[in-house]
Specification:
With about 325 residues, this protein is an alpha/beta fold. The protein contains ten helices and twelve strands. Strands 7-8-9-6-5-4-3-2-1-10-11-12 form a twelve-stranded mixed β-sheet. Strand 5, helix 6 and strand 6 form a beta-alpha-beta unit. The longest helix is centred in the middle third of the chain and has 14 residues. The two termini are about 25 Å apart.
Amino acid sequence: MIDTNNRTIEYMRLSVTDMCNFRCSYCMPDDTVLESHTLSIEDIELISYNLNKLGITKVKLTGGEPLVRNDISQIVQILKTKCNIKEVTLTTNGVLLDKHLTALEAADLDAITISIDTLNENDFNNLVKREQFTTVINNIKLAASSKISNIKLNCVPLKQFGDENLISMVEFANDLNIQLRFIEMMPIGLGRKFPGYNYTELVTVLENYYGPKQDSNTIHGNGPASYLRFDTLDIEVGLISAVSNKFCESCNRIRITSTGHLKQCLHYNYNIDIVKTLKQEDGLKQIEHFILAKPKEHAFASTNKNDIETLHMSEIGG
């Protein structure tokens, strides 16, 4: 599926629930009030089967926290066997991974991305408002030794944790020989209130510690990360800098929220009720036109707030 800006749209981020067992300060703090939307397994199959007809072959299952669903491995299996999805991956906070890992291996899950922003136990527990640091660390190690070969760590680098936290994250990932990606804080919802490192600041910290960087052309997944190599590291370090360095010209993704709404772009509030639309006679054609009209680029720096997404990331899907 080629949109009006000549981009191949093949990747869907599918939020299977907006429920989460963490209460991260920049995403879903303790006072967050949600109606709790969870897509039915039938709707997930309906959406994925039809969007595959339009060219979607890669799906990332997100939330909320997708592993709060007991049927998550069944969803993976359905996507791969009934919807012709070639690559199914999952993002998680890791706390329930030990309970699902064997079933996810059996369902032929292709990759797992685990989100963790600090390796300081007190900072971690304060950020997520749960005493789960040890569980998450153990489950990261468990995943690294699993049959699922593609394991990544995602870290939103927050200024409040300091430069040393960035180095600790790199050393941890390097010791486990798994990929690490630093993701710039997105100016969405509560994220606007949490200062993070931009691309230039991240590179400066890394080069000050590891020496000169070398740009890598290696592709490690479906995302827009640019990877850096350092002579002193076994792994490559990924940087996703949607604000500092727009990658909109190569964006290949759409998003489905846990309420069943299709979003063309994270920044804008444009959406379409995909389940309702698919039940119309010309529904698939309407959806195709909507996707093909995907905006050319985000405008996070714009002062025009008329079309800016106001939902929190937990409501949109990570």
